[in-house]
Amino acid sequence: MVRVSNPHSSVDQLSSYATKQRREESPPNILLCVTLFSMDPNCIFCKIVAGEIPAHIVYEDEHTLAFLDNEPIREGHTLIVPKTHVDYAHHLNDEMYMHLMTTTKKIMLTVEKALSPSRVGVIIEGFGVNHTHVKVFPLNSPDDLSTHHEKISSDEEFVEMATLLSQSINN
Length: 171
Ligand SMILES: [Zn+2]
What we know:
Elements: H1 7-25, H2 30-36, H3 44-49, E1 57-60, E2 64-68, E3 78-82, H4 94-115, E4 119-123, E5 134-139, H5 155-168
Antiparallel strand pairs: 1-2, 2-3, 3-5, 4-5
Bound molecules: zinc ion (ZN).
């Protein structure tokens, strides 16, 4: 039987060596990148993520992007998308789903802080664009969710709203 005077130290060394080896030996993880950031060339949200189509960006991090809906039903109507093309939110892996929801909460807090609505509404339904998107709305009555209230905003109003929201983000 081999006795190790400080087994914890040996285990730590081994595990740290294994981690180091993994980091050093792993090539750039192309498969992971493809999985995380797969794109559909015909998808308007993928084009926004890639910067090929302009949008009024409110927030961006490594895995998610939040921007104003260009056909808002309320001023401040914001979309949050994962940067990878996945049609249904419930088909995202758990990590990406949780990240999307964390960004959604950040945008909800921002809309509350910047626009002071009675309520902040969230919808995931997926009609329109088949790239997962969460819709966040400032609400003052249940009727505010009606698409009959679609608001036509000028470019100037979009820029003002995107600036207001992006400056209100609590990072
Ligand atoms: Zn897409």
